[in-house]
Hints:
By secondary structure, the protein is α+β, with helices and mostly antiparallel strands. It has two domains: 12-203, no CATH class; 289-410, Heat Shock Protein 90 (2-Layer Sandwich), CATH 3.30.565.10. It has helices at residues 24-41, 46-69, 77-93, 101-111, 119-132, 135-155, 162-243, 249-278, 292-301, 318-338, 374-385; strands at 306-311, 344-351, 355-362, 389-394, 400-406. A five-stranded mixed sheet has the order 1-2-3-5-4, covered by helices on one side. The longest helix is centred in the middle third of the chain and has 82 residues, at 162-243. It starts with 23 loop residues before the first helix and ends with a strand.
Amino acid sequence: MPEPYPTESLDLPRLRYPDRAITPYDGRRLAIVNSVDQSLNRRRSARDWVVDSVAFLLASLVGLILYDQNSADRIPDWMFLADFVSGIALCLLLWFRRRWPIQLAVLSALVTIYSETGGIAALIFAMNVAVYFQLRVTLLIGALNVVSVVLYSLVRETNDPPVLVYATALPLYIAAVGWGSYIRSRRQLLQTLRERAERAESVARLEAEQGQLRAREEIAREMHDVLGHRLSLLSVHAGALAYRPDASTEEIAGAAEIIRSSAHQALQDLREVIGVLRAPVGELPQPTFGDLPVLVEGAQRAGVPVELELDAPGSLPEHVGRTAYRIVQEGLTNAMKHAPDEPVHIEVTGAPGNGLTVVVSNPAPRIRPGDQGQGLKGLRERAALVEGRLEHGRTPEGDFRLSAWLPWPA
């Protein structure tokens, strides 16, 4: 399917049927029309001054030579005078060929019916139409010039036979129109290439921005997973200190040390995340599947009764192992938040070719149906990214169960 042509710079009132939807053909046609308008209405550049000066001098010099050579033609004196005056006038009008291209081309075709002096100017006017307008308009102007050549052979009683006049004039007009059409096609090609390059730059810029947004979303998800878990541990220990005013000095000191170390680690994680956000290129340090026992030990030191059943012999793919780690981490965080002091059972089993199953369950959570944050949604997205699946909800016994299956290629 071809790419649609851009319409943001198009002059919409130019459509013949304004109620009709804009098609790619309309977009291309309107873009060409606007390009022609801009070329015709822009200020004359230094290059235009040089081209117009050369065209004027060439048309005037050749016109005067032809006028002198055809002074022996058997025509009235007033026609000779009209030939000279109108021919020089056409040469002067070359300075305005960009402002009134079609009008001057029609006028030159009429004048060259009797004027030999303006012949080169008429060729330039015809080529000018071919440069700025579509083939249909160019062919109409070309046909008008052919009629002008035929009438010239009848009006001017020259010494040359009409066939020689046709053989001389018609190839010149064909060459001029062909050269103008080539220039127009080349300009359209350059314009198309320029628009494609600009479109490619825009697409590349949008893809880079989308990549940055995806990277920031990933960092935000990591912040939720890492800091949420650390802060949940802090909440558990702070709650224990608040509800145990009779705790011994050693217990208070141990809980305070855990709170201090957890807070310090949370600050370290936060610094790493902020460092990645500030850096132009970087990656957030990612946990691995081998860090899973360390995660469970940290929760156990915090006083959370966690039981881990790990049976996954073999080497997991890095992205699958990281996803399994995040699922367990989010399950522990939710358990400490919604069901503190309740035992948590974690089961991680699997083998290459059969997939990896991760189950986190804890009894009687106080979470209400529908009271779910972004963590579980993020876990579902993580599992989908590795072509896995995730389910969560209450069991018939009233426990909350988080279950995931992740692919593990053989």
